[in-house]
Recover the amino acids of this structure.
């Protein structure tokens, strides 16, 4: 037969190797299907089979050991064209390393056919056993033979959702079985059983492939034959910018700050500490200030303390650390525990705003106590504390915070609006 | 970073979530035309290589534990010469370290990440503006030189919200990719005058394309250690080194009469800016070098540094990693370090070291 896909009469494999059978039958199968040379992308793994690239005139991609299926998944999803045929050649060693990639590709239905060259050992490195080595099969490094059955990769990928899966014996004309797999949309896999002429036969003298398969209980059959959709890569066009000008905050107010103020907020997870901090920075931005915010909380974000460092500054903020904040605001026991060291070391220059429910503490800071929790409950204590911060420091006009509060999500809470009004705007609150 | 990369032409984000890179993953889902959730970091890089070979421009973001898993595949991407951007958000190590603590502990790893000691372009962000500008440069460099590029940042940069002026952001144009157009067979690793091969995706209907990780000749054929294959390996290295000027980014503020220069990058650069400004305001002239193109090391940095009597290097690790890359194991007596782990280096700590050595 005249070859179209393979460019040589001399394939690089040992005499009697099943890899030659697979390559030659791949040529035949692709011809049967009438595929164009450049519609085929052959992705090869590391191992003896992987040196076949140069013999193929298709597109070829030769990657790392065990990773060819993941690489081919990227190629397939990247091309995103079901008319292209992505074929992966991989050995039993590569399939052992890249087992997860096989399951993942089957699961997602990436458009490709994986051909596992299962010669039951690692041929390129001296005949070590793989996870596919059948029970009793000897290799140069396993002279007593494998003590347990090899992986049933066909059952595994079928369970993972592969559309078409078969195990075949790599003797004679296997082009029909390969063509069957190549013709499928989505993920298909053919495991071709071989015996390595260099290490397999030498370690198991007289052993024949067919009898080995029978004795080891390896099933030669189709494992899955379902119509499955090919993975289609989503390519979303004209997504909205993250920098929607409508979200921009312009300057509406002035401010009295002549230098940066560093504020440390410390409270309990789930009590709106981060939202209150963000509200404060946004209010500062309404006054033409620069601002930064960063949160601290345990890995389990819904329990324990929740703290936030914010900086409001008339100049762009450079260093964002605040080992000695100008203001510390604490609204709960969790918050006090977390901020204990800072509070303990604070000096007169620090303002501590703390909820009245918390115990007396030893600190050099100037302390302002307020009934935040009693007035608005734990959930909104930090929001209210922001108003107290502005009242105490006059860092920004109270009306700037008021506006940010009312226009933000937090201010949608009618009861809270009333409670804030009662304390901070006895003369009336500007309704939005 | 996300907005800048997409505007610059990035088409796909592939990632596995890891603190402190998660914000990049979250925003990616809203902004990249294609978003792929990979089951692990090895798969991430392999998928990226596949997408890149198919002509798409992929981005990922990770931190050391994930990056460590990617290493072999990054070596592959380097050898295949596949454009992509890998954002490395540094956190405190070794091993899993402390996921929510910032650090600058990975530049040593990056300088030795390619077997053979070759370099990928490593571009660092030193402040919020750089998240915009350097992200754009990283993607354009990846395409320009047909190479993976590392965009180096850290927890405190990615997990701190900054106010910024929308109007101050320079316009970013989408990268124009030029594919091989000739009728002659495509030779996937044939150098142009800059040492950069032309590009074609594996979906080409006109020419055969080969991508190969192992040592290969210009056709992409494995040849072992033939002169053609070895010279191709050296050509890839030279492509990155000799075109350094095309992606050389740094800030240098020379203070007249200064005998001391401070070098800081990444998160520490902002502290250094404050420290140096305060010294200069106090009448003590101190110069400042903020490298953004970290690797390969531009010779210019050493020229600038060596023109001062005292060099103060500030970086958030214990061993002075970048200083060692710059000056080697035998540190000159005039090189002084401000190092720290677990907390950001403060402007005061840098100032204190500067004061020890006069101006």
């Amino acid at each position: 037969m005249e070859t179209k896909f393979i460019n040589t009469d001399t394939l690089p494999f040992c005499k009697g190797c099943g890899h030659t059978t697979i390559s030659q039958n791949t040529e035949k199968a692709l011809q049967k299907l009438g595929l164009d040379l450049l519609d085929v992308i052959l992705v090869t793994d590391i191992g003896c089979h992987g040196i076949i690239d140069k013999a193929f005139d298709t597109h070829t991609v030769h990657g790392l050991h065990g990773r060819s299926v993941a690489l081919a998944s990227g190629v397939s999803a990247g091309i995103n064209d079901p008319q292209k045929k992505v074929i992966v050649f991989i050995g039993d060693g590569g399939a052992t390393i890249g087992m997860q990639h096989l399951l993942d590709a089957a699961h997602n239905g990436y458009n490709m056919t994986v051909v596992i060259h299962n010669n039951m050992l690692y041929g390129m490195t001296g005949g070590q056993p793989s996870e596919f080595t059948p029970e009793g099969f000897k290799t140069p490094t396993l002279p007593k033979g494998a003590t347990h059955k090899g992986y049933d990769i066909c059952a595994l990928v079928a369970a993972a959702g592969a559309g078409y899966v078969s195990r075949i014996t790599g003797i004679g004309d296997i082009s029909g079985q390969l063509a069957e797999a190549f013709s499928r949309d989505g993920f298909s896999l053919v495991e071709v059983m071989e015996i390595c002429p260099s290490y397999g036969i030498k370690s198991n003298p007289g052993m024949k492939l067919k009898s080995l398969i029978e004795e080891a209980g390896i099933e030669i059959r189709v494992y899955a034959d379902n119509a499955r959709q090919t993975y289609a890569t989503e390519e979303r066009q004209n997504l909205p910018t993250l920098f929607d000008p409508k979200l921009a905050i312009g300057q509406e107010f002035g401010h009295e700050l002549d230098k940066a103020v560093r504020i440390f907020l410390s409270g309990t997870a789930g009590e709106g500490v981060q939202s209150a901090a963000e509200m404060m920075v946004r209010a500062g931005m309404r006054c033409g200030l620069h601002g930064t915010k960063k949160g601290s909380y345990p890995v389990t974000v819904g329990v324990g303390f929740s703290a936030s460092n914010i900086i409001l500054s008339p100049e762009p903020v450079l260093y964002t650390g605040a080992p000695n904040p100008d203001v510390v605001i604490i609204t709960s026991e969790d918050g006090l525990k977390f901020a204990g060291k800072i509070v303990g070391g604070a000096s007169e220059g620090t303002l501590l705003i703390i909820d009245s429910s918390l115990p007396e503490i030893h600190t050099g800071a100037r302390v302002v106590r307020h009934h935040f929790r009693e007035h608005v409950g734990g959930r909104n204590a930090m929001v209210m504390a922001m108003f107290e911060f502005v009242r105490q420091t006059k860092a920004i006009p109270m009306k700037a915070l008021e506006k940010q509060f009312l226009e933000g999500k937090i201010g949608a809470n009618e009861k809270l609006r009333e409670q804030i009004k009662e304390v901070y705007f006895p003369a009336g609150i500007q309704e939005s | 970073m996300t907005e800048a990369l997409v505007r610059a032409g990035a088409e796909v984000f592939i990632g596995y979530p890891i603190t402190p890179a998660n914000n990049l993953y979250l925003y990616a889902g809203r902004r990249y035309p294609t978003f792929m959730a990979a089951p692990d970091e090895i798969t991430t890089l392999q998928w990226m290589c596949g997408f890149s070979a198919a002509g798409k421009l992929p981005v990922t973001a990770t931190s050391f534990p994930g990056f460590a898993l990617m290493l072999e595949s990054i070596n592959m991407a380097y050898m295949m010469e596949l454009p992509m951007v890998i954002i490395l958000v540094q956190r405190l190590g070794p091993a899993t370290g402390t996921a929510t603590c910032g650090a600058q502990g990975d530049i040593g790893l990056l300088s030795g990440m390619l077997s053979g000691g070759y370099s990928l372009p490593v571009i660092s962000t030193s402040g919020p503006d750089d998240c915009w500008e350097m992200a754009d440069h990283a993607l354009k460099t990846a395409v320009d030189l047909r190479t993976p590029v590392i965009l180096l940042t850290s927890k405190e940069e990615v997990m701190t919200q900054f106010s910024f002026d929308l109007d101050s952001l320079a316009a970013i144009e989408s990268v124009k990719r030029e594919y091989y157009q000739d009728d002659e067979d495509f030779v996937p690793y044939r150098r142009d005058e800059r040492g950069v091969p032309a590009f074609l995706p594996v979906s080409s209907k006109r020419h055969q394309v080969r991508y190969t990780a192992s040592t290969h000749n210009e056709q992409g054929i494995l040849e072992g250690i033939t002169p053609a294959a070895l010279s191709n390996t050296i050509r890839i290295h030279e492509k990155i080194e000799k075109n350094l000027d095309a992606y050389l980014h740094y800030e240098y503020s020379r203070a007249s009469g200064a005998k001391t220069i401070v070098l800081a990058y990444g998160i520490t650069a902002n502290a250094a800016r404050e420290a140096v400004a305060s010294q200069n305001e106090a009448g003590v002239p101190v110069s400042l070098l903020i490298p953004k193109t970290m690797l390969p090391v531009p010779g210019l940095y050493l020229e600038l540094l060596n023109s001062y009597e005292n060099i103060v290097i500030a970086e958030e690790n214990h061993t002075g990693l970048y200083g060692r890359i710059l000056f080697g194991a035998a540190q000159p007596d005039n090189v002084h370090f401000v190092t720290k782990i677990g907390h950001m280096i403060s402007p005061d700590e840098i100032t204190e070291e500067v004061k020890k050595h006069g101006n």
Summary: Chain A touches chain B through 61 residues (CB under 8 Å). Chain A has a mean pLDDT of 94. The CA atoms of residues 135 and 147 of chain A lie 5 Å apart. The domain at 245-424 of chain A is CATH 3.40.920.10 (Pyruvate-ferredoxin Oxidoreductase; domain 3).
